[in-house]
């Protein structure tokens, strides 16, 4: 099971850099080929105060483990010895203090909050088995352990737990020991489990469908890449009992026919009554269908262009705090959500307290049983545990700064480091952020003014089974914040039968790639000049002109400002026929013209989720009912999803609909926007071997809306102005040039790829 096989890394303390351990060494790379003069403003947040956002260090993780294992009443078993009837630790991560306590401290008028950890424990030994979360702290002097409780995140039923390794292996054991299965697979496909069919794809079935814990198992040949080599064989496995010896295969799908039990299938197969499949193992050619071996065009031999930083980095990173021009922010890594940005300031003023992905959902369709109800909540095993080792020069520019993340999960029971999980870099986008050229003397004179678009990008990539998702947080000199998601990787497939044509596209021999929906939910905790904010829509309408200069009626556009007063009013379902702006503002802070200062939220990627309310998987992703919803900030509503959001449909552990349905006032309150992006993907042959990112981009933008007196980028170091030189004879053809335009003679530093040839553990952590 290639995408679930994880090697535990044991790092010494000296290797554990940039994870805010006070014993570690921060290796900030400020070296450059040319002299570097910092243009950075004074940070609004000192390094010592930013420490609260830092992920747990290896030392802290080990101290928490030592503390918990000495609690005899917990009866904890180490994960390698655990089974589903024991108590064992699934994950450990930082537990952030309340927003009020964080802001009070970093703004300098509150006490320093304690650092604490949240620990997820499988309580399999108790009579009423549950999955519990415990808060442990303070981390500098461990002496307290308390159960985490709130109205929307309580104990999770054991039935909706994540899928631990002991459970995955139990499914394999069931397949290996099922009488006759080995011979049927070998006769039908020339392969069997662990012998050329090592890929199984689990489709977990929400409890709302069956009231029992079940999953469909789809089989694939073990080739590069496995999704292009499906076989027409699926098993429905009942894994409801905690004793894996009692698990059973309930149904079989084979040769496009569904059998109500394995016993029925085996009997009919052996007596010749069942239709049979006969396939040969596909070839392992270097340039086979799913292969990503390099196949260069011999007629193109020039290399692609590259960027470089002539004066070195214009940003600074210390621990998990970043300063860039007028921007400053922190990040914290969440097991469920991956990296989240906090305390985003521009020119010393907080714009956003929290900005982060909540979950990724993929909904499939198909005629075969596994795909007909295939619903994946990718946060099930934690998005951060699926971050990729980013490759310099491809995933990020060569001049980017790379950062590791520290993680403590079942994959890394003693704590471990995922290298190159984050990259941070400045990039010239190759387009003007603004520009104008005046060529008519009577219209303001002859001049040109412009500014190239340079941005800071904070990037991570999640590799979730077959799909790769590129997540970017982008900061502009204009004061705007953009978030982008790109989808790439491999399409998921099933065996091609005529009935599947209504659900997808044939992309290879015997291979159908079904239609699917990608959904991404984000949390945007906006603080415009404080925590007392309002939300309004600026609606664009058509009005009648009763009489104009020609005494004829007509039409024109008009604006209507509509402040939303309650959460239900602000639960937005997109309607393309009613264009509008979404504006968050502070009603007590106006500019000199009387405009309330605010920020606009706009999205490019709203989608309509078509599953009826309350049907199957839908209620565990009730946030997808809205393209955007605005609620008041609550500590009990920290996230719209949970790590249980696959099996828990029907009785979700986190029910987002309750965030909205309590319908509280949102006037002059601390507001949070929950925004959903999505796209329907109808696969096609150009998705072979990989889905390309072009056309797969979804984004949203927070941009100032009467927040500044003018565009803040007018103060950019990179602005350029040109005017003609004047001469008495009028023969002068030269230009006066203002701005930072210089010739560069330095040679840009290049990434040393020879080091990767010797040690690739920065890309594949299983090599460490």
TrEMBL record:
Keywords: Copper, Metal-binding, Oxidoreductase, TPQ. Its cofactor is Cu cation. Residues 61-143 form the Copper amine oxidase N2-terminal domain. Contains 1 topaquinone per subunit. Residues 306-713 form the Copper amine oxidase catalytic domain. The keyword Amino-acid biosynthesis does not apply. Residues 227-271 form the DUF1965 domain. Gene3D superfamilies: 3.10.450.40, Copper amine oxidase, catalytic domain (2.70.98.20). InterPro entries: Cu_Am_Ox_Cu-bd, Cu_amine_oxidase, Cu_amine_oxidase_C, Cu_amine_oxidase_C_sf, Cu_amine_oxidase_N-reg, Cu_amine_oxidase_N2, DUF1965. It comes from the Eukaryota. Topaquinone (TPQ) is generated by copper-dependent autoxidation of a specific tyrosyl residue. Signal peptide: none annotated. Its EC number is 1.4.3.-. Belongs to the copper/topaquinone oxidase family. PANTHER family: AMINE OXIDASE, COPPER AMINE OXIDASE. This is Amine oxidase.
